[in-house]
Amino acid sequence: MFGKVLRRIDWLTILIYIALVSIGWINIYSSTFSEEQTSLLDLGTRSGKQLFFISVSLVTIVLVLALEANFYERFASVFYLFSMLSLLGLFIFGKTIAGATSWYDLGFFNLQPSELAKVATALALAKYLSDIQTDLRRRKDQLYAILIILIPALLIIPQPDPGSALVFFSLIFVIFREGLPLYYLSIGFALILIFIVTLMFGTIWLIIGLFLLLVLFFFVKRKSFKVPIFPLVIGSIAIILFSLSVNFVFNNIFEQRHRDRFSLWLRLEKDPEKLEQIRKTIGYNTYQSEKAIESGGFFGKGFLEGTRTKGDFVPEQDTDYIFTTIGEEWGFIGTATVIILFSILFLRLIYLAERQKNDFSRMYGYGVISILLIHYFINIGMVIGILPTIGIPLPFFSYGGSGLLFFTLLLFIFLKLDTNRLKENF
User: Fold this and answer.
1) Distance between CA atoms of 375 and 60, rounded to whole angstroms?
2) How confident is the model at residue 381, as a pLDDT?
3) In contact, 282 and 257? CB cutoff 8 Å
4) Element (H, E) at 95
5) Does 157 score more than 90 pLDDT?
6) Can you list the positions of beta strands (E) in 99-247?
7) How are strands ordered across the β-sheet holding 95-97?
8) How many CB atoms lie within 10 A of CB 161?
9) Which Gene Ontology cellular component terms are annotated (predicted)?
10) Which of 196, 250, 272, 362 has the greatest number of beta carbons closer than 10 A?
11) Helix axes 113-130, 359-383, angle to 10 degrees
12) Alpha-helical runs (H) found in 157-253
């Protein structure tokens, strides 16, 4: 039985997984290396612990592949309920690390239930959307689908862990793939654009720009085209009110560290001296990571030869900023290789998702793609300075047992579902 699963499984995806995990471990070893380190298996070191986590992940793969594929669909709701209870339990039993109460202390390692919640939410969303009674043309069903995503995010934000909460919203793309009207996505992007424009230029300039756009629209439109004036007026008022709320939220709800990160990202601070000061304080991680990657050049400085890596210039270099080690020690060649591997992985997963005959498998596959893609995009974006700093690990790379274990679980559940597609064809 297990032998048949191994023959049917997508080995290209597994080879990419092995490559990413291996390269990740090598760079964890390099970023945490010390002369006192005597053994690769020393559990007192970060690289030794990561090897242990890799071993646990390999055992997890065997267990995932050994179970029947329909097990994951049948118990998706149970997994979701359990993961929500684990998130609630953090408010009572959680351990606080770096200001966030996001972990359970299990003695031998810390478990982060938000990682399990990503897997469970992807399963629950696929289960709900694939139900024969679900019709995304109905507002009620749209609301229920969004609530499945919103509940874990709302439980994670107060920890506080806004980075992990943001990941759940990537699953909205699964709903769009299955028929949610695109105007919802348009509204979402419009709100983000209004938020950024308001911070950069202010509400007054936004109103002036909106007025000029309306004038241009009426000037170029055809005479036969009648404009619904009332919705246009209501929409314009809503834009202005939202813009006014942006300043209130930014100045009264955001913490100073959040305001500083947006100031750095959007260059809101006009004083060069103050901007440089922000770069060296709140933006210190990004500043140092940019310098580390830049210093690597085309070929890099070589394994264990990164001076900034050895000097601990970049905080969290084995977790959220692991990509800087690749940039410094392996240069453009190394970073390009990693990006190519991830790109092949995403394209392969899209191909696998599209060939599924079972709706649940296809929807879950797109959930896997959404979660991995937002982690990849935001992590590398913040490391090279094009996105604000958000505490999100690089999948299969960053140090951490919970992250590696549940990314592995997320991926291999889908690969198991894919083997079931082949079984159904026989």
Assistant:
1) 22
2) 86
3) yes
4) strand 95-97
5) no
6) 100-105, 110-111
7) 95-97, 100-105, 110-111
8) 23
9) cell division site; plasma membrane
10) 362
11) 140
12) 162-168, 172-177, 182-201, 203-220, 229-248
Per-residue pLDDT of 278-299, as tens digits, reads: 666 666 777 777 778 888 888 8
**Residue span of the structural domain in which 368 resides:** 1-201+255-423
Backbone φ and ψ of 353, nearest 5°: -65, -40
Which residue's entry shows tokens 């756009």? 213
Answer yes or no: is 73 within a domain: yes
> Left (φ > 0), alpha (ψ -120 to 50) or beta: where does 22 sit?
alpha
| Residue whose C-alpha is closest to residue 243's, from 302, 180, 190, 290 | 190
Tokens of 353: 């998702």
Find the mean pLDDT for residues 146-167: 85
The C-alpha atoms of residue 371 and residue 376 are separated, in whole angstroms, by 9
Count structural domains, the chain: 1
Two structure tokens written together for 230: 């009332």
Cα–Cα distance, 307 to 339 (Å, whole number): 23
Are 157 and 165 contacting, i.e. CB atoms less than 8 angstroms apart? yes
Residue-level length of the chain:
426
Q: In this structure, what are the phi and psi dihedrals at residue 95, rounded to the nearest 5 degrees?
A: -105, 135
DSSP string for residues in 109-129: SEE-HHHHHHHHHHHHHHHHH
**Other C-beta atoms within 10 Å of 137: how many?**
9
Asked if residue 233 belongs to a domain, the reply is: no
Q: For residue 97, what is the enclosing H or E element?
A: strand 95-97
Residue 425 confidence (pLDDT): 47
**Residue 4 domain-assigned (yes or no):** yes
Examine residue 217 and state whether it is found in any structural domain, yes or no: no
